[in-house]
Design a protein that fits this description.
With about 550 residues, the protein is mostly helical. It has a domain of about 240 residues: Serine Threonine Protein Phosphatase 5, Tetratricopeptide repeat (Alpha Horseshoe). The chain is about 40% helix and about 5% strand. It contains 21 helices and eight strands. The strands form four sheets. A two-stranded antiparallel sheet has the order 1-5. Strands 2-3 form a two-stranded antiparallel ribbon.
Length: about 550
């Protein structure tokens, strides 16, 4: 797939010339002029696979030109990329993630002060999702049986039916993100290309459509079974994984809980043959595409420092986390001959109240050697460092709180990215959007929700024990796994993977004064309640102004 991405941009140029109605008034910028049309772009049968590759790659790509030239109206190309800003909206708005930089999107998200006025993180995620949906809709138009027959590609129909199912999955995933983050986005299908401006159908109706669409894909002969297509293409397991997460949060989206459905959907995925990778750290190494980690990945965004470069993606998760001193010291502590990470932007931090959710031994502030805790006796999912920092986090200085190095320049054989390599500043770590560990956690939480808040199913306990054994903390697992303990276990297992905001909303903690965290609401001790409308982000103003069918979310 990484090689296919390199060859998909000519086709993409033709596709984007045809995009109208849904995104022509969003914050998009003009693309390169091209003489390509849909007919010349699809002149060869191989173009259908290239077009599908572009749909997959849109999570990681910022333009058709280069990694420094965004094709949407966000000034910094790296900050225009979908997976980076998706992670920001879901983590920076919670206790798990702090940024000390002064970029104008950061303070409103970090302090829960965003408004309907333009915010580049909100613009990026909303626009990328809507543009991704429009790309899929155009692809579906151009790959109809009628179009293939007209082009003399009738022999490709069966193959293209599979591609169309995968394209529909990508559209469903974009809609899931929009439903979760924005509540009631515009709803556009193929008929909106060049036609009527899309309308909103409401969060509950969008949930219903998504459920029907994903169930259709999960049970369709056109949707590939697990193992039938190369990684990272979507399969039936991918559809069931989105359903499992959607059902887990159904009460938030519709007012009606669907715990049994969540447990059953997670069980569907678990039964398909995905396996936990035995080494947690290798899930987030530079060679996670080839070191066996993908046996756990159900949906992932592919990155490659030579072919899919981005200052977003996992590059920001590697480069923004450490100071030069920390970079050198951690490398020395690990016995490395070079640096741990190729760059040190020194902006991302973690406050102590979140780190305390990890089972760390021997935490010490003011230590001059080591990591600030005993790594050998602690949770293996903890990748923290506090040497040279003060315990009380201060967003105005660089040396406070903890640093997290979960995503690094390491390869599985122990060497690190070298400045002698081409494009060494970019990360090749694939970003897992869904992985098997999450399905284990969904299965267990759904069971607890149906049994008085405590996990009772032996299967569910067994799944959690597998996670704990991999983390090296099986002996610390409580006999009673209740909902609050499971929330902490999700924090430990899924840190910085884009889950925390959704989790806190589902638990009723996101806006509650009873669940404080550092800088919640801009207050240092976080002992404040947030307005309920903070549970969704606003529809961006440029879309509201361009489309009279749209209504802003309540509170904005």
């Amino acid at each position: 797939m990484k090689k296919i991405l390199k060859n998909s941009f000519l086709l993409a140029s033709a596709l984007v010339l045809l995009l109208t109605s849904c995104i022509n008034d969003l914050d998009t910028l003009p693309l390169n002029e091209t003489d390509a049309t849909s007919e010349t772009a699809y002149a060869e049968p191989a173009s259908y696979l290239n077009g599908l590759a572009y749909l997959y790659g849109y999570w990681a790509l910022v333009s058709q030109n280069d990694m420094g030239s965004p094709d949407i109206a966000v000034a910094d190309a790296g900050q225009s990329e979908l997976s980076r800003m998706y992670m920001v909206l879901n983590e920076l708005s919670t206790d798990s993630f702090k940024i000390i930089w002064g970029d104008n999107y950061i303070v409103p998200i970090q302090y829960h002060r965003w408004t309907s006025a333009d915010n580049e993180a909100i613009i990026a995620v909303y626009t990328r999702c809507m543009k991704g949906i429009t790309l899929v809709n155009e692809y579906l138009i151009q790959t109809s049986d009628e179009k293939l027959n007209e082009r003399g590609h009738s022999d490709e129909i069966a193959t293209v039916h599979q591609y169309r199912a995968e394209a529909r999955f990508n559209r469903a995933l974009y809609y899931y993100l929009l439903m979760d983050l924005f509540g009631n986005p515009p709803f556009a299908l193929e008929e909106n290309i060049g036609g009527e401006l899309p309308k909103q159908i409401g969060r509950e109706a969008l949930y219903t459509w998504l459920e029907e669409e994903l169930l259709d894909l999960a049970n369709s002969a056109d949707m590939p079974a697990k193992g039938a297509v190369p990684y990272p293409r979507a399969t039936k397991g991918s559809a069931w994984a989105v359903l499992a997460r959607m059902y887990l949060n159904a009460e938030v989206y519709t007012g009606t809980a669907q715990w049994q459905k969540a447990k059953e959907a997670a069980a569907q995925v678990i039964g398909m043959g995905y396996t936990l990778h035995p080494n947690y750290q290798e899930l987030f190494m530079q060679d996670n595409t080839t070191n066996g980690a993908t046996q756990e990945f159900i949906v992932a965004v592919v990155y490659d420092k030579d072919n899919t470069q981005s200052w977003g993606g996992t590059t920001h998760l590697v480069s923004a986390t450490l100071s030069s001193d920390a970079n050198n010291a951690i490398a020395k502590n690990l016995g490395l001959s070079g640096l741990l990470n190729p760059e040190t932007w020194n902006g991302y931090h973690v406050a102590d109240d979140f780190v305390q959710r990890f089972e760390l031994e021997g935490v010490e502030w003011g230590a001059t050697t080591g990591f600030g805790y005993d790594r050998e006796k602690s949770d293996k999912r903890a990748f923290f460092y506090n040497i040279g920092s003060s315990k009380e986090f201060d967003n105005t200085t660089t040396d406070t709180g903890w640093r997290c190095w979960k995503f690094t320049g390491l390869y599985s054989d122990g060497h690190t990215v070298s400045d002698a390599e081409s494009n060494y500043k970019f990360s090749s770590i694939d970003f897992p959007v869904f992985r098997l560990a999450e399905m284990y956690l969904i299965f267990a939480e759904a069971d607890a929700r149906m049994n008085g808040g405590v996990v009772t199913d032996p299967l569910a306990k067994g799944y959690i024990n597998q996670l704990r054994e991999r983390a090296g903390v099986a002996s610390k697992t409580p006999e009673t796994m209740d909902l609050n303990w499971l929330l902490d276990e999700r924090a430990r297992e899924l840190m910085w993977e884009g889950h925390r905001r959704t989790d806190l909303i589902r638990y009723g903690y996101f806006t509650s004064m009873a669940f404080p965290w550092t800088l919640k609401g801009g207050v240092m001790n976080g002992k404040v309640s947030l307005p309920e409308h903070r549970k969704v982000y606003p529809i961006i103003l440029s879309d509201l102004n361009a489309n009279p069918n749209l209504v802003q979310n309540t509170g904005y």
